[in-house]
Structures
1.
Amino acid sequence: MTAKPFEVGVLVGSLRKASWSRKLALALRATAPASLALDIIEIGAMPLYNYDDEPHAPQPWLHFRNRVRAVDALLFVTPEYNRSIPSVLKNAIDVGSRPRGSSVFDAKPAAVISISPGLMGAFGANQHLRQCLVCLNVPTMPAPEAYIGGIEHIFDADGAITVEATRTFLDGFMRAFAVWVEKLAPVRTLLK
């Protein structure tokens, strides 16, 4: 019997429907190792986190928390805004990590890919996101790190990655992530 693939929730840090981050997430979903099933968890509809709203949490918060709770692992694909992560991604982290003691992120293995048109590949966003994940007890794959610069030049019209070096690197990254998830994902029942 073939093992069921690990469910990986993908959080895309950009709201634009045609964003480079979303294109990369879709390309990775199409080429991921068979042991990983990637699904984008939308984060744009959630109101800003406010603890005062917890007694009657908005439906988008509850939907997001349930989606994250149901996955085995997380993949973050994000651009960099002002040397940090976009506010929509930080809001998703805040919503999922609250109320205190009820984080839906706890102990889920994760990986981070940051992207940019510039050559630095959003190093600041990658490192800042990792800092947030450490305090949430999200074991984030330490290596290889993924900073993808020149993002606007790697896709064809259909969203496939055309730069051979980038495709090779991302294939290796995703294989490493599959090993990371298998090693750290919570024990699952055979049929889940």
2.
Amino acid sequence: MVMFYFSATGNSKYIAELFCRNMEAVSNSAVSNFAVSDSAVCHSVEEEIDFSQLIKSSEIICFCYPIFGSRVPRLMREFAAKYMELFKNKKLIIFCTQMGGSGDGARAFTDVFPCGFVEVIYAEHFLMPNNVCNLFFLPLATNKIIQWYLAKAKKKMEIVCNDIKNGIVKKRGFNPFSQGLGLFQGSFMPGIEKRAKSKVWIDGDCNQCGLCVSICPMNNFGLEDNRIITKNNCMICYRCINKCPKKAISVFLRGKVKKQYGYWNTEGLDSPSILP
């Protein structure tokens, strides 16, 4: 079993690693008509490793990602497309993290594949704190609320892993109502994605530290002539806007960011640090 995840600011990484740790406890248990290996390997899709070999050698492929308006992040879709043929006839476990309700956030990933190409054996949604820090109607959670989210996620993950251990198949987001809700929400996203590619601004507080250049998953930043430039390839994941030490970056909506979602910026999974 292998887990592939994309995590913009830490939420999805937490869920992916939580799953792998929980699955180690049931590593030798029968799962339907196959057995879980003695470990569940966890990798970010941003790593520079031999993904082909990992996919070929794994019977079960797990995915975890944040959902953007009922739409799978572009980087995750591109990853699936790149290794498409290797996923054929694989069994998939799909998790999506969301700040509200996506409708069919986990099911949406199957749209990348031809009909009948893969077999989904489990799909689940996890509520996690909001990392969109520049919309006044989406306030950042307090540390107390974040702990509530994490407690709920841990309890749900215990249920998920026990289900998988016992061969129980659940597919969150696959019913007609969820798909309809996802279709409605997701209908706006292609246009938003296209416009957002160039909707990144850097203000005068930038000190050219180059952090955004090194952490952007889409290689959207560069350093030229002692200034940061953008390359019109943003996928609005909010990593740069939340990690810029000078709060100098704004995404999609122009304006100074007052607070950043920085819970996972400190050492340890449960060490809160909402940046001022």
3.
Amino acid sequence: MPQPLIIGHRGASAVAPENTIAAFAAAIDAGADGIEFDVRLSSDGVPVVIHDETLYRTVGVRRRVAEMSADQLSGFDVPSLAQLFELFKSNKLLLYLEIKGSENRLTEECCRLVEQHRLKERVIFECFDHSKLQLVKNIEPAFKTAPLFKSSALSRSVLKKSIAIEADEIAIPPRLATLQLVEEAREAGIRIVTWTIDDVAGLKRARELGIHALITNDPAAMLAARDA
């Protein structure tokens, strides 16, 4: 498979509302190698796919996700994690699942659904709170994890922290991606993923560095550039 892999950020969010079934379907139609998405817990304990704590930025509604049921949220195009998994059961795309909530219950429910839908080989758990990824590994060591790091992180600490939690991949902004880090990570059996890249120059640099996958808002454009 050509490298880097092209992963749709919150689906194909350049052409459809982020983290919606429409955005995920657009990523599938574009031929993306996978998608990235965010998961929170509804008031009735259902993992739902949305980035923010509230609905204000995406649909202009001043309500908190944690105070609404999954049924209520579905009325605002917020799918459940189970619905997303159903959409992807007929293909083999990778699924980068970012844990957004702080509740251990959310992490546990996500793990349960991954097992239930038999997606252990395709889901990569992401989180800025690395303790949540440690919990994932405690639940099932075979689950794949990718700690997220902000651009303010120190490059020398990124690999050390990732090895400490037995990560499979590392998800970083392009600024942190260096040839040294990629090579040292590879020696440790860890792949590098970068986010969010929407330009050809960024794609070219990712390819030159040997980046495993890049996350983009416009998978169709990045695929066209990669495969040209």
